[in-house]
Amino acid sequence: MDTWMRFMSSDGEVVFGRVEGGYLHEYESLDQPVPTGAVLSTRALTPLAPCAPGKIVALWNNFHALAAKLDKPVPAHPLFLLKPAGSVIGSGEPIRRPLSYAGKIVYEGELGIVIGRRCRDASAEEAAESIFGYTLVNDVTAADLLNENPHFPQWCRAKGFDTFCCMGPAIVSGFNWRAARLVTTLDGVERQNYPLADMVFSPAEQVRLISQDITLEPGDVIACGTSIGVGSIKDGATVTITIDGIGTLSNTLTVACEVAI
């Protein structure tokens, strides 16, 4: 397995590469994984979200256990929405409560698939080869907005606020997702602990089927959906998501402040 991360250097430059033994071996980019020859100490770098997706494809009802609990039928095709690129933050960055919203904010711990090459109408083999690696995602939701308007469920608005897609801390290629579990804690108390093997659609199946609907580009992320244990975050609380072999994603909900003009 290889671990890939994205950082900000002291001169404001974004660098990407493979991390080993406290050093970043720089590569050109995620879609052009060619080494530049530069080797940088990670102690002198500021971690960022591990990629900058053009879009995040977020799945709903993709785990058998949660479908059974909600008494929902297993879908025949991935059910998804799109989160905007501007919603992405890295591990350690704050989730900001929108000034316009005082309602319930919910965490959802998820596996993220990172796309490594352009993918459209992919075969099963092409879909598997299009996966660069895996990361962690907290698909944050302003839950009270979903059905605020009885005539139009507001999935994109509820999940698309700035900072509502926590991602990181790294991308791991060659990761055996079938043997892994995802654990979410809220202020240190375990809230989710589920096997990734319970997914309705495997990562390769997700890529194949979603590529029939929209073109997936390098750096795009598919959030694989969540399972039992979703809950609300109080202001000041910290959500921590862990998958052994990928790492830990941790973010705290803060109250946004008015900016003086």
UniProtKB/TrEMBL annotation:
GO molecular function, one term: acetylpyruvate hydrolase activity
SUPFAM superfamilies according to UniProt: FAH
Gene3D superfamilies, per the entry: Fumarylacetoacetase-like, C-terminal domain
Keywords: Metal-binding
Keyword Metal-binding (UniProt): yes
Keyword field contains tRNA processing: no
Domain Fumarylacetoacetase-like C-terminal per the UniProt entry, residue ranges: 55-253
InterPro entries associated with the record: Fumarylacetoacetase-like_C, Fumarylacetoacetase_C_sf
Pfam families linked to this entry: FAA_hydrolase
PANTHER family: ACYLPYRUVASE, ACYLPYRUVASE FAHD1, MITOCHONDRIAL
Protein name: Fumarylacetoacetase-like C-terminal domain-containing protein
Gene name, Swiss-Prot/TrEMBL: yisK
